[in-house]
Amino acid sequence: MTPADRLDEVILDSLMGMSPLGIAVLDRDLRYVRINAPAAAANGLPSDAHLGRSVREIVRPDVWAIIEPLLRRVTEQGESFSDLELPVAVDPERVMLSSAWPLRGTDGEILGVVVTRRDITAMRRITENLRESEERFRAVVELAPNCVFIVDEGEVTYANAMALRMSGAAGKAELIGHPLRDRFVPESWDDVQALMRSPSAEDGPAAPRPLTLRRLDGGSTAVDVSVVPTTLGGRPVQFLVIRDVSRQRRAEEELRRRSRFVETLLEHLPLGLAVNEISTGRQLYIGTKFERTYGVEPGSIEGVDDFFEKVYRDPIFREQMRTRIMADLMSGDIDRMHWEDIPITTASGEQRVISASNIPLPEQDLMISTVQDVTDRKREEDARLRLQAQVEQIQRMESVGRLAGGVAHDFNNMLGVILASAELALMKVAPSDPLYEELVEIRKSAERSAALTRQLLAFARRQHADPVVLDLNDTVAGEMRMLQRLLGESVDVTFEPADSVWPVKVDPTQVASILTNLALNARHAIADVGHVTIATGNCSVDAAFCEAHVDAAPGEYVCLSVRDTGRGMDEATRARIFEPFFTTKALGEGTGLGLASVYGAVRQNEGFITVESEPGAGAVFAIYLPRFEGEVPPRRPVEPAVPVSRGHETILVVEDEPALLRLAQRVLQNEGYEVLAASGPVEALRIASEHPGAVHLLLADLVMPVMNGRDLAAALLELLPTLRPVFMSGHAADVFASRGAFQHGAKFLQKPFDTRTLLATVRSALDGV
Is the peptide bond before 467 cis (omega within 30 degrees of 0)? Predict the structure, then answer.
């Protein structure tokens, strides 16, 4: 029971306890539900002895024979009766007036009957005594606890002591001889007159009515007025008994106010409420919020059975819900009676999510049911979880990227030694020598390993890139023939370019790598024959889109999409496809770095990528590259390759990896260059300052202890202004370029590199190409 319910119970008990009337509340079976002390005393039993028992068990058979048809007409036909003189079970000499009316629920259904019994034994005896002796009558009435007026032709001829107190009169002279109408407010006088006109001596007293008595001091009092016609001294007069009911009126108003408060509170709570009888399923109360949550019209549910019929249209599901509810109730487990996040289809066909509870009160034969619509909360929670998963995935990818980049950097140094050593050895071995093929295999393995490290660097966004402003339509069109050969004859590839796509700034080789890896991924997803569609288009990304894609940023983008008709992916696979070394291919069929390198290349160019796929429905990879806002430079003509000539210049080589330093020295010396070898920046500065001749070129690692290659170049340029720098690194060149590493026309060598690339880069730098 809620605090409000307990308060209502206390108020009701207080009102019944204060009332001088006998009050009893019966249910439809005429069993006592409540009874106050005056009513219980009339039956000669305490109040507790009545509760739960039938009236028939309490009263004498002769009394029951009289009152049963009257009460049945109330409960079955909704009739009422007022002030009937019925026998008293305990004392046949007592005279009591009984009234009864139906107790109805909020839906108008008769729940029981309220019976009041007013003891008029004293009044009846007073009336009889008045007939015998007016003096004796006056003596009794004077001490009556209620206000008594005797009225003759509208004028007060008698007023008792209580009349003086209730009217605020100093003496009886202020009342006697004055019109009765002066004692009532104008709004009540018509009702008083009706009371005085209606009864006759034979009909008995008129029913009390709620009226307002006017005091002589200007105040007013709420009263009930009863009119008893009689004769006094042979003249017909009217005997008015007036009872102060102001306290009762205040209590009733307070009860109504609290009821209105409870109803308002229930309607504005974020949950719907319904109350029904457990035994019968009869609906006692149902709130409009409860009905609307389940998608039914307010006021249309007539009971538990009707609720199930209207809410759960599927008969199988309906019985499942009934069975579940009954099992929960029979278990007695309170937790089982509360259901969280239950998906339902409302009576109106809408998909919603609810939380519901069934709270049984067996001792009252009541079931309290609550329901709350949590659809919006559930959607927000699901969106938050999806966003959290995306953030965690991005953080995980960043961590793996940092690890992959570090590993690739160290591995590149070792691969550089292997490649250069293999090439130097091949220069010294004739093709007919048995060692020649072994050396070739060593070089091929090193080159394949170098390709893997480049993919790792691409994922880690540490690969060297030479971004240029380009038109994606032209770039993709130039790759179509290669893509068709890559996909084979069983897979068609089409290109759907949009008109006037915006320019983007990106390395064309990265675009080619992205298309190649996505094409290979699509070929693997297509079991036999299929189709791949490549499309471009301009698009604007807003904040709403970014809420669902945490790595996106608002702005204008050019979208490059690749759609395939393959077998598609489930959600678990989609969540991991960009992770390095994750692959759905069989062992030995792939490295799991293709899509990882795509992800890295896109992120390196400040773009983002989305994937849409369902099992059996293919996949769509959409790559968003930022629109280039600057002036588009003119295209440079493609220059023919120039053969690399032998050298004669002096080159300062700075490398903290001894094996790489020795190899670079040997390769350059074999081509005719004079090589000054230094194992670190400090030694390089000393050698450069002591060397008597010119130093034409600096070949230095970017990442070294004490001083990085950029700072070393800056220091050497103060000594040797014409020095040409060439930097080597396994890290991303663009990271160092942003720090000014590529000033003064510096060039870059991505580790690992072969001897041909080294010699060509050195020659290009010396020639200023």
Answer: no
User: pLDDT at position 503, please?
Assistant: 92
Asked whether 729 and 756 are in contact (CB, 8 A), the reply is: no
660 vs 656: CA distance, rounded Å:
8
Question: Coil, helix or strand for 101?
Answer: strand
Please write the tens of the pLDDT for every residue from 356-412: 787 788 788 888 877 877 877 777 776 676 666 655 665 555 655 555 555 566 666
Q: Residue 599 contacts by C-beta under 8 Å, 6 or more apart in sequence?
A: 397, 459, 578, 609
> 302-332: per-residue pLDDT in tens?
777 777 777 777 778 778 777 877 777 777 7
Among the residue ranges 133-137, 201-205, 438-442, 545-549, the one predicted with the least confidence is: 201-205
Mark 612-629 as b/e (b = at least 16 C-beta within 10 Å): ebeeeebbebbbbbbbbe
Rounded Cα gap, residues 210 and 201, in angstroms: 22
User: Is residue 647 a contact partner of residue 592, using CB atoms and an 8 Å limit?
Assistant: no
| Length of the chain measured in residues | 769
DSSP notation for 742-759: T-TT-EEEESS--HHHHH
Q: Which helix (H) or strand (E) holds 700?
A: strand 697-701
Tell me the average pLDDT across 217-236.
Answer: 84
Q: How remote is the C-alpha of 341 from its chain's centroid?
A: 11
Helices (H), ranges, 87-185: 121-132, 134-142, 161-167
- The reported pLDDT for the residue numbered 741 is 45
Asked if 480 contacts 617 with a C-beta cutoff of 8 angstroms, the reply is no
Structural contact between residues 552 and 559, judged by C-beta atoms closer than 8 angstroms: no
| Alpha carbon of residue 765 to chain centroid | 62
- Rounded to 5°, the CA angle 478-451-402 comes to 110
Contact (Cβ atoms closer than 8 angstroms) between residue 506 and residue 467: yes
The beta strand positions in 66-184, using DSSP E, are: 81-86, 96-104, 110-119, 147-152, 155-159
Residues 738, 715: Cα–Cα separation, whole Å: 19
Helix, coil or strand: residue 64: helix
How high is the pLDDT of residue 678? 92
pTM exceeds 0.70, yes or no: no
Provide the β-strand partners of residue 84: 98
* Element (DSSP H or E) covering residue 469: strand 468-470
Element (H, E) at 662: helix 658-670
Q: How large a percentage of the chain has pLDDT more than 70?
A: 79
Convert the pLDDT of each residue in 170-211 to its tens digit.
888 899 999 999 999 998 888 888 888 865 544 545 556 678
- Nearest to 751, CA basis, from 429, 372, 505, 405: 405
**C-alpha span between 301 and 349 (Å, rounded):** 17
